[in-house]
Amino acid sequence: MDIASLLSGIAAVIWVGFVGLIAFMVFQSARGQKIKNGIAYIITMAVAAVMLTTVSAGIVFINPDERGVVISAIQSGGVRPEPIQPGLSWIVPFVERVERYSISKQTYTMSIAPGEGAVSGDDSIVARTSDGQEVLVDASVIYSIDPARVVDVHITWQNRYATDLIRAISRGIIRDAISQYGIEEVYSLKRAELTTRMADTLRVKLANNGLLLDDFVLRNIAFSEEYSASVEQKQIAEQQAQQAKFVVEQKKQEADQAREVAKGKADAAVTEAEGEALARVIAAKAETESLNLIAEVLSKNPNLLTYQYITKLSPNIEVMLLPNDNSFLFPLPEIGPQQ
């Protein structure tokens, strides 16, 4: 409790005592009894009550989150030009009074959900995009009164600034901004840009009327049932297209893999064939060189062929030599153990 309220309370108690004392003195007088110095008590209490009432009416305590606008019957224009700052202040009793305004942050919400906004029921903003689609917008405006312009706010709006200024200006700015964008830009592509544009315009409008914008929140954007259904169908189609694309990519990868496997097998077959051909060439060269060497040796020693022929004969075969002029070779009779 501030001192002004305390003095006002004391003054009220004294006034009650003053009235009670008068009633008691009247009652005593009716019984033929008089209270000694009763008139003096009444006058003293009356003076004290008047003084305390006057002082309490002239003292004003302003809280730190408030500013006071002095309405004055003796001031030109009916109001003091400067607001009262926090703390104790003095006004002229009975000819001046104080209107208090909060300078702390306040929130004005417009929502489709009942009970969330400042207005009961559906208070969302109905707007149309540049391509004719209808949208429902939920928004919150966080603002405060400019402490230096409290008097201007009182003169222009009094305590109607929330409903007559914040609400009206916000709804108009939101509708105008949304009308500059297409439906897809509103809900996805340029939503951040849209919010910034609304906030900048609203900040200027409020500043011109003595209010400060702290934040603008675009809470939700809802669409008509028809458009929501079309968006859902589009999303389903996009998901199906993505799935088909994935399948195509998978098949392509499988085909690429099969081609690589086939190419690997072909390369392996070519390599194997080349290896076999090279081996044959090398073997042929080796055989040729061997035959050349044998021919060279035989040319120098013709009897070597006969020697090789004889050595190749089985050691179990017996042969006989015939005269040089006999060209036939007959097998010898089998020589074995005698029975």
Tell me what the structure shows.
This protein is an alpha+beta fold and about 350 residues long. It has eight helices and eight strands; from the N terminus they run H-H-E-E-E-E-E-E-E-H-H-H-H-E-H-H. It has helices at about 5-30, 40-60, 150-155, 160-180, 185-190, 190-205, 225-300, 305-310; strands at about 60, 65-70, 85-90, 95-100, 105-110, 125-130, 135-145, 210-225. The strands form three sheets. Strands 5, 6, 7 and 8 form a four-stranded antiparallel beta sheet that branches. Strands 1-3 form a two-stranded antiparallel ribbon. A two-stranded antiparallel sheet has the order 2-4. The radius of gyration is 59 Å and the shape is rod-shaped.
Structure in a nutshell:
The chain is of the alpha+beta class and 339 residues long. The chain is built from eight helices and eight strands. Among the domains are: 3-101, no CATH class; 106-223, Band 7 domain (Tetrahydropterin Synthase, Chain A, 2-Layer Sandwich), CATH 3.30.479.
Largest sheet: 4 strands, antiparallel
Our measurement of the CA-to-CA distance between the termini, rounded to an integer number of angstroms, reads 156 Å
Q: Tell me the name of the CATH homologous superfamily of the domain at 106-223.
A: Band 7 domain
Name of the CATH architecture of the domain at 106-223: 2-Layer Sandwich
The ordered H/E elements are HHEEEEEEEHHHHEHH
CATH C-level label of the domain at 106-223? Alpha Beta
Q: What structural class should be given to the helix and strand makeup?
A: alpha+beta
Poorly predicted residue ranges: none
Helix count equals: 8
Coarse shape: rod-shaped
Radius of gyration: 59 Å
Beta-strand portion reads 15-25%
Kindly report the average pLDDT value: 82
- What's the helical proportion of residues? 40-55%
Output the CATH topology of the domain at 106-223.
Tetrahydropterin Synthase, Chain A
Strand count: 8
